[in-house]
Structure formats: structure tokens, C-alpha cells
Amino acid sequence: MASQRLLRPLTGLSNLTNFLRKTLVIAELEARKLRHDPTELITRAVQPALWLLVFGQVFTRTRAIPTGDIPYLDFMAPGILAQSVLFIAIFSGIAVIWERDLGIVHKFLASPTPRTALVLGKALSAGVRALTQATFIYLLALILGVDLNLHPLALLGVLAAVILGAILFSTFSLIIACLVKTRERFMGIGQVLTMPLFFASNAIYPIDIMPGWLKVLARINPLSYEVDMLRTLMIGQVSATGLLLDFGVLVLVSSGLILIGARMYPRVVV
Amino acid sequence: MPILETQELTRCFGDLVAVNRLTMSIEAGEIFGLLGPNGAGKSTAIKMMTTLLPPTSGDARIAGYSVTRHAGQVRRLIGYVPQMVSADGTLSGYENLLIFAKLYDIPRHEREKRVRDALAFMGLADAADQLVRTYSGGMIRRLEIAQSMLHRPLLLFLDEPTVGLDPGARRMVWQHVQQLRADYGTTIFLTTHLMEEADALCDHVAIMHLGNVAAMGTPAVLKASLGKEGATLDDVFIHYSGSALESGGTYRDAVRARRTARRLG
């Protein structure tokens, strides 16, 4: 009987392949939505463009921020990429509240899909959105004359950093959504979190020029590690923390958040 | 063996006992209706049976599997259509089904046929490639039922399947539910606050009021038990719950019901 085959206990390797397969199905679902309505990607591109074109151009002229022998625009381009990933990811959790207010979350939770796959699949879709931003920012930076490292390995590293950053902050966003449960509260908290995450990081100025207390915050802010990784790979600046540590911090924090998210997600319907 | 059995299934929210020691059993192949006004505890009961909400105490078993201890197996055996809109409006009808076919591990070579069959069964073949946000309320409900039957569940839960639908669309959903049982032998557990719906569809019903089951049986037996000529299920409900139909529901229930109605309408 077909149902007996379905009931065969999943173990070890088949558990893992099942998890990966379902994660990709969830990501596919989100990618299909994006294909039907890509306007979000276009409107999202405006903000990083403004930062690079206005803020970047002005601060390159004033030389107010010490960036060594690197032009300020080159210094900030990886920071703006990280910012754009952060902004896309940090508000992605609101979709969970929307889907909970409908019955969509209920249906997924009643299906035999691992909770971790539901959470990671959604996070990956934020990664897909973020990659379109990365492409746009690369093009704009090249036009503005930023000296980008276009070595395939460097590009591959940037790809990993962008996707990891998106996974990290979108899962963080999902956890907040599961805690606050209403759109109004979520938007409020999202606004409150975004700016400190951005400004208490090395995105648009080096950590060295910060006051002591802010240095501490910047060092525990995962965004700093993402920026450091991007800056090393994109413009060849010597890494402040080391690529391995950057990568390790992003993977570790993401994994932790996914495990927490997988526990929180089912509670959103209670 | 009964396909669904609950033993003293209970759920509290703070001081409120939403479902109070619900004990019932349902045989394979029947259409069972859990009736009651908004706020009676129907949705809470269905959430526990579909593994979405852990019971405060008690348990439910589906084909022998406990919803608390074997949630994974239970999820493979059941289908569930939530009360609110659960189809994704930003995807086409076909895509909505395809994603669930993949989530339920329907083998690749069968997937396309299963999805096409489900669309045809529900009369949605022509609308397959349109975005669901262009569908009518009745079409959305039929798509959602199609989604939930792709993996041929033994037991299908329908939470208020016709809420917000006009009488024509409602009848069409009823026909499809009956056809589903006839063609696939699916056992169906539905909740409704429409006594007419229960009368038209259900083999057995339980009347729920303020978390308790006030009466259980076939509609005919329940009506006869009043000893009154021409008694309706409405009369049965009023008799057993000791209150009028309009009593239940909080502000939140009202908001939800109307919002659902608006989206479907």
C-alpha cells in the first residue's frame, strides 16, 4: 500500500536529503512568486543607488573618513551591498505574519515538511532577492569606477557572503515576526533595529575611528563580519578579522538562528 | 479500527478552556461534522488533530498514530484546508498544486498527472495557469481542497469549508466533497456553523458549545430525539446547547470571519 511506503521511517542520510529537497521546494515557491511580480526588486534598487551616487560621491570629495589609500567610494561599496542585503532581509519576516493572517502557514505546518526546511527555504529566497541587488550594485559600482576584484573565486566568495548575510538577517526577522505576531509591531521593531545594526558596523566607516563603546557593539554585530568579508573579496582590502573568522561567524550565527526559528515558527499559529 | 479517535482532548488558553475533554471516534469513509457557533472551540479542536497545536492534556490518534508522539506520521496521512484562505494568490493554480505535490513527495513521474487530475476533478483545468488572485471565492476553495488531496490522505480536515461563499458556490463545494469520498474513499472531518450544511453532507455530527460536546449522533437521530414534528438541526442545536446560534464568538472571531468572507467573496 502506498501509505506504508510513505510511513517508512526516515533516517540519517535520507533525513538530510529530504531536508535539502524540501528547503529547495520552499525557495522555489518564493522564486516563482518573485517571477510573477518582480517590481519589488526594482524599487529595492533605488536606495543603494542613492547611497552610492549621493552619499558616496560627497564623502569621497570631503575625505572626512580615513580609509587609507583606498578611495572612499571603493571603501563604502561593499558596505552598501551589505546594507542592501540587510534591508531586504530584515523586513522579509513580515510575509510570515501576512501568511499567518491568511491560512498559508497553517497548511505548510500541517504538511510533513521539516520545520528547519520551511525556515531555511524562506531564508534562501531572501538570498535570491539579495543576489539581484548584488548584481545591480556591481554594475553601478563599475560604472562609478570602483576598482572591483572580478576574479571568479572572489565573485564566488561574494556570492556566499551575500547569501549567508541574507539567511542570517531574514531568519532573525522571522524570529521577530513569530514573537510580535502583528504587522504594526513588526514594522516598528524592524525600523528600530535596522539603523543601529547598520551604524554600529563597519559598513560606511572603519571600526578604528569609533568610540570604545561603539567598537564593542560593532565587534559583536554580525553585519561587521559580512562587510569585512565583502570588503576583502570585492576591493582586496586586507581583512581586519580574517576571512575564515568572518565566514565562521556568519555560518554559526545563521545556524543558531535557523534552529531557534524552526522552534518559533510553529508557534506563530497558536 | 476507527480512523480518528480522541481521548479527553483538552486545550486551555490561560483560564479559558477552549476544548474540554473531547472524546469521540470516527469510522473510515464517513463525513463527520463538528458543529457549533463561532468561538465554540471547533478550530482549536481541528488544530490539535492536525498537529498544529499541542493539547494541554489528552490525545488524538489518527489511524493509530498519536498527534503528540507521532506528529510526522500523522502529517503524511492527513490533508487540511484551514478556515482562512490558504492558497497563494501570487502564484497560479497549477503552481500552488505543484509545490504541494513536491512537499508531499509525490514521485516526479506521477506529479504532473496528479496535479492535472486534481485540477480537472475540481473543475479548474481551464484556470490552471491564471494567478489565484483572479479566482472567485468558490474556485479558491476548490483549489485548496485539490491541494489537500494530492497525496490521497486517509483523512481530510476541512475547517469551515464554505464560509463566505454564496449558495451556488457552496453547493458546488458540497458536491465535490461528496465526490471525493465516493471516488477515493477519503474520510472527511469538517467543521461548520451552518446547520443546513451539516444536514446536507454529514453522516454523523457532534454539536459543540463553549468547548464541550453537547450532543453526538446522526442528524436524523438527533432531530428525532427532540420528539417534535419537523425539527431541524437548528432546533437540535438550540436544544442541546441551551442558547441561540448567535451567542458565540469574540471580537477577534468576528473580524476574522468577515475578513475571510471578504477575501473569498
Give a description of the structure.
The complex is a heterodimer of chains A (270) and B (265). With 270 residues, chain A is mainly α. Chain A contains 13 helices and no strands. Chain A has one domain. Chain B is an alpha/beta fold and 265 residues long. Chain B has a single domain (4-264), classed as Rossmann fold. In chain B, 41% of the residues lie in helices and 23% in strands. The longest helix of chain B has 18 residues, at 167-184. Chain B is globular and about 55 Å long. The A-B interface holds A 2-3, 6-7, 21-22, 25, 28-29, 32-33, 36-37, 101-104, 106-113, 266, 269-270 and B 47, 50-53, 72-73, 75-78, 80-88, 90-92, 95, 99-100, 102-105, 131, 144, 147-148, 151-152, 154, 259, 263.
**Helicity level of chain A, as a percent range?**
over 70%
Question: Approximately how much beta-strand content do the residues of chain A carry?
Answer: under 5%
CATH superfamily of chain B: P-loop containing nucleotide triphosphate hydrolases
How many domains comprise the coordinates of chain B? Answer: 1
Shape of chain A: globular
* CATH architecture annotation of chain B: 3-Layer(aba) Sandwich
The CATH class of chain B is identified as: Alpha Beta
Integer tally of domains of chain A: 1
* Order of H and E elements of chain B: EEEHEEHEHHHEHEHEEHHH
Order of helices and strands of chain A: HHHHHHHHHHHHH
Give the amount of beta strand of chain B, in percent.
15-25%
Radius of gyration computed on alpha carbons of chain B: 18 Å
Q: What about the largest sheet of chain B?
A: 6 strands, mixed
How far is the first residue's CA from the last residue's CA of chain B? 40 Å
The total strand number of chain A stands at 0
Segments of chain A where pLDDT lies below 50 for 5+ residues? Answer: 1-5
**Overall spatial form of chain B:** globular
Supply Rg of chain A: 20 Å
- Output mean pLDDT of chain B: 89
